[in-house]
User: Fold this.
Amino acid sequence: MVEVVMPRPASTVLLLRDGAGAAEGRGEIEVFMMVRHYEIDFASGALVFPGGSVEQGDHEIIAHAQLYSGGEGCDAAGLSFRIAAIRETFEESGILLARARGSSDLVGAKRAAEISAASRAALSDGKVTFLKVIEENGVVLALDELVPYAHWITPIGMQKRFDTWFFLAAAPHEQVGAHDGRESTDSIWLSPHEALAGGESGRFKLPFPTTRNLIKLGKQASVKAALQDSRGKPIVTVMPVMTSVNGGRQLRIPLDAGYDGELFEVGKV
Assistant:
């Protein structure tokens, strides 16, 4: 009997910006992605979106409602996924989805850079909590900037399993992001089509869920269109099922999840 490993809650953010001419229908949407360090034990060397596991500290922030805005109607689990999404994005890219206390505007690039320089490394090393970073810098997490996009659970039978929520978010103005040099070794803004072409050519290593979400995102002409299309849309959970067929392997995902098919060839047994 195969031991069923319980999936760890995790969050991923697709940070979006309009490429040149995208807002006028002449260009393409762009997404922030990173190359994971080759020594990382999960998806090593892969081109991915910022994200990671939900931590205990994310749950602790829930009790401090003055430190976040948005998330109305979410239960504790829903809030923890959103808080983790913003924390992981900050840790991995330096981009901060937050507002100064009492302000309706997202933190500017200069202020985000100051907070990043003072706190990002210590936060990643576990030397300071995200709760403390928020409190000391007088910011409020902008949970309302996150739009639920997808929900994937690693297939049964895998040794490492994650229960991952994907969120869309428009990147704050002039916050361009940068990889941390530890968990990731490179970062880039690129269109979904560029990322997919890199996966086909061998330039990039793309995990299966990343590929599916890039194809889906590539149908959107602008950040505004992507957010509007996803806001309020029901999300079908995807937990791929692997089967062996004629010496090869196939993954099956729910057709009503809105991706580019239901059955996918993923290599030889």
The longest strand covers residues 8-18. Helices lie at 56-61, 76-93, 109-124, 130-137, 192-201, 208-217, 223-230. DSSP finds seven helices and 13 strands in the chain. Residues 76-93 form the longest helix (18 residues).
